[in-house]
Design brief:
By secondary structure, this protein is mainly β. Helices cover 7% and strands 45% of the residues. It has helices at 74-80, 169-174; strands at 6-15, 22-26, 39-44, 47-58, 63-68, 84-88, 109-112, 116-125, 132-137, 140-145, 151-155, 160-163. Residues 103-169 form the Ribosome maturation factor RimM PRC barrel domain.
């Protein structure tokens, strides 16, 4: 399976026991949804390798305690320490309304309440404290904050996100 066909689930952050159990920090709002996984893809080098799970349970807030079939001692756990975990995109729960996955809205048009079409979303930057849509209108690049106050409607049928940007924000980029 290719990495492009998967979503990032989390990362193996520490060993839990001498029997090879590990703790994985899950990057999800509801980590308990992943307690019943039968397998996960582990990024080893440049390859996604399927690992089957004997037992998986929630361990404190966003950590999963995982007992892999293939990992039964500390040295095997050491080999996957720091490894990223992925699942196929088909396993993502469907979202509706104004909720969306970042990968889902790439290519959507941003429609501002005042300015109309202000560009097409090329990526979503979530590396800073404020998540931003990175959109392009002609040769100009716009950065629009991703907040409930700004997003008024997600229209999946027409592939558009309707926004109400603060006064002066769009003019910074397009004038």
């Amino acid at each position: 399976m290719r990495k492009e066909d998967c979503f990032y689930l989390g990362k193996v952050v520490s060993k839990y026991s001498f029997k090879g159990e590990v703790l994985a920090k899950i990057d999800a709002d509801e980590p308990h949804l992943y307690e019943s996984m039968e397998s996960v893809l582990v990024l080893l080098g440049n390859n996604l390798v399927p690992f089957f799970i004997d037992r998986c349970r929630l361990h404190k807030s966003a950590l999963l305690r995982i007992d892999f079939e293939e990992v039964k001692d500390e040295s095997a756990a050491d080999r996957i320490l720091g490894a990223e975990l992925y699942l196929p995109l088909t396993l993502l729960p469907k979202l509706s309304g104004n909720k969306f996955y970042y990968h889902e809205v790439i290519g959507f048009t941003l429609i501002d309440a005042t300015h109309g079409d202000i560009g097409v979303i090329e990526s979503v930057n979530d590396s800073a404290s404020q998540v931003l849509f990175e959109a392009k209108k002609g040769e100009k690049e716009l950065l629009i904050p991703v907040t409930d106050d700004i997003i008024t409607k997600v229209d999946r049928k027409s592939k558009a996100i309707h926004v109400k940007t603060p006064d002066g924000l769009v003019e910074l980029y397009l004038d």
